[in-house]
Amino acid sequence: MSIESTSVRQSLLSRALPTQQRKSAAELADQLDLGRGDRLSKQSAFWTMLTLAGVIATAGVIGNATATVIGAMIIAPLATPIMGMALGIVIGDRVVLRRAALFVLLGAVVVVTIGLVGSLALPSTYAVMSNPQITSRTAPTLVDLAAAIATGFAGAVGLARRDVSDVLPGVAVAISLVPPLAVVGICLGQHQPGLALGALVLFGSNVLAMVIAGTLVFAVTYRSWAPEPAVGRRTSTLAIATLLVLVLIPLAANTVSVILVSVWTQRVDAAAKQWIAGTPGAEVLGVSVDSRTAVIDVLAPGDLPPTSELLDSLKGKVPSGVRIELSYAAGERTAAGSVP
Fold first, then answer.
1. HSE on the CB side for 28, CA within 13 Å?
2. pLDDT digit string, tens, across residues 277-288
3. Total domains, the chain
4. Do 10 and 114 reside in the same domain of the chain?
5. What is the distance in angstroms between the CA of the first residue and the CA of the last residue of the chain?
6. Closest among 56, 243, 256 to 140, alpha carbons compared
């Protein structure tokens, strides 16, 4: 590394983490390692708050109560062992890394179980897909990963500095950890394994983002404290890189899917407006696309043109076989047919 690049790195570090406000490595280790110091008190607090956060998140998700879900995010302590994993990688301590990973894994199981039990109280008519608290967490994209990485950096800097610890509640809200796990349990209880997998991918990507960001911040900040690179640290880094690639695959697929659905929605909307352009008083109120069905909300005081004209106009603009339905302002819905 050149002298110039080293100087730039040190300048950036001094601005983000001033020496006078920087926690010592020992202080950070005591805060993040649940097996260090007063282990009984630390672990008791962790499991108590995590269980309560799981119950609150499950209730908030089922009841579609955003404020309740945010409350669960704030009190959930999962970020501590996650950042503990980053610390374990930086110092090359397998014991710290494994212990932190075990707390994250067991904590995830606890919250998923709470969500699963909570779903048993739901009626058989409960519509999972109509709950935005669930649907918003079952199809993560690359945008979610980017936000999670930025949030992870904010959390790592907040942990390393003495004077900005008050940002941590905001970090807890910005990066969703417990609610996706509650969604996993609820979806499993409602026999929706596909949705459960999507929420699990969101949780996994958020965990990896925090570990990567924490590792980078701690490595730069506490370089002199950490020992020389060890085999265990290289193995851990390789494992995280592999998991990141595996997570990127569904995130990229979901991102492409979201973009395509947006394009198809715009095309259906334009075609529908052109289709009713000659009908006095007719208006397209909106278009929604779900899976391979596009629903067009139409306000029409009189008869509409033949639906075959609409279907023909969409040929080549949306995938063949997409089902088109018309939803009238009065609440009636009729099938127009499928795009040839």
1. 30
2. 888 888 888 888
3. 2
4. yes
5. 60
6. 256
